[in-house]
Amino acid sequence: MRHNYKGRKLGTNPSHTKAMKRSLTAALLYNDRIKTIESRAKEIRPEVDRIITWAKKGDIHSRRLAIARLGGGEDNKELVRELFEKVEQGLFADREGGYTRIMKLGPRKGDGAPMVIMELCTEPVKKKAKKTAEPAKAAKKAEKVEEPEVVEEEAEEIVEAEVVEEAEEVAEAAEEAVEAEEKAEDAE
Q1: How many domains does the chain have?
Q2: Does residue 100 fall inside a structural domain?
């Protein structure tokens, strides 16, 4: 019996399963996309999400946990450093989970195993529009919004004011240039 063993067996002994999961996780974080069997992809998804969540935290303890999860080799330390830098620059800033995507490819030719492409979701999240429960509130908000004509008139006034300011600046620059030429002629 498999008491207290989590996850799929993946057709191997526990030590090989652990090593395979570490390897696939590191490959996904390094390449941003891998092609593997569906059961393996589903098994490493929580580990990848957990490591990216640690990277969003960004402290030294999280960094050490990520290195320990991937195995402590120098290449994995470098991989964790790069991942933490990417996340610090805002890679997954707007995403609160679901950092991976699994796309099914169909059965493998030799043994019919279901193949998938697993990749990191790097594009920004599209915000869904909130549905209003009461249409009366929406109507009141629509009434409060200024009419488009008023907004257009204000925009035209702002543009005219900017044009006038630019014309004044050009005129001042021309006057200064004329004064500089007169001083140069007087000096000669």
Answers
A1: 2
A2: yes
